[in-house]
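User: Quick sanity check before I run a bigger batch. Here is a single chain. Can you write out its predicted 3D structure?
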Amino acid sequence: MSQQPALSTATPVLQVSGLETHFAARNGIVKPVNGVSFSVSRGKIMGLVGESGSGKSMTGYSIMGLIDAPGKVVGGSILLDGREVRGLDAESLRALRGNRIAMIFQDPMMTLNPVLRIDTQMVEAIQAHEDVGRHAALDRCRAALAQVGIASPDQRLKSYPHQFSGGMRQRVAIAIAILLKPDVIIADEPTTALDVTIQGQILAEMQKLCRESGTALIWITHDLSVIAGLADQVCVMYAGRIVERGSVDDVLDSTAHPYTLGLLNSVPSRNPRGQRLRQIPGMTPSLLNLAPGCPFRERCAHATRECLEDPLLEPVLGHPTDAASAAHQVSCHHPLQTGIST
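Assistant: Done. Predicted structure follows.
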């Protein structure tokens, strides 16, 4: 895989601090994003991992400014290349979306207009941000479709979304997201509907795009096996909070939070043949008026009375003092023994 060492990755291109998103409900306030903080540097890939309902997709929507009433981003900071984007007006956000920051949705029809041909949608996406002629724009569209594994791009450009399979529509949506080589791409489980071969191809192309163009990628998923081969950093979310974060090696090989271990043990390949699949007991807690304390305590075998108090996100003890390992953090009163493989 080609590298581009000239790119600077020291300064984060996206820095999220204390992000809070609330939804007003009849019985109280739902907090799907509750004090989330992370940063992503140019050319790096961060995995945002958690069960359904953990808040990972809402985090992506909040960054993109896609939260509508009754929801609202009520706190925190979102810096894109040092510029605060939280609170920007609609016109300023439109100028950023697609150009500086793009999102790939799990449902491709959230991206594609069913009544417009693919070439019209892709060319408009380019011309909305750049002064480019139609012929030059079409050349870029063909290249983007080929990059995501779509054969006969000239024929496909003249098609409508309903003429594609679900997996093919998703590949078109991914191609639109990478057209302008944005600074940041937020991908919300975009390969879920694709077969394993095409999924591997897309993941390889996304890695190549990030390394060569400097695009930062946030890959939202519940599948830790995908993150293991894709990401540089991992943030594990539970009940709207980040409970563990660090390099992919630290988090997956020296797991510190019981919830992260539960996710790892739920991967079918880690289960002995012939035995029942392991799973995390219980259900995720309601985010409506969530009680203080560790939100995972009702499902955790290590919980004590101390877990009735909120744990802080702190460095994992027992690591070497180098900078990479010092960045491994966990929010747990009783972190698992570190330095051992899980």
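The radius of gyration is 21 Å.

User: Great, the batch can go ahead then.
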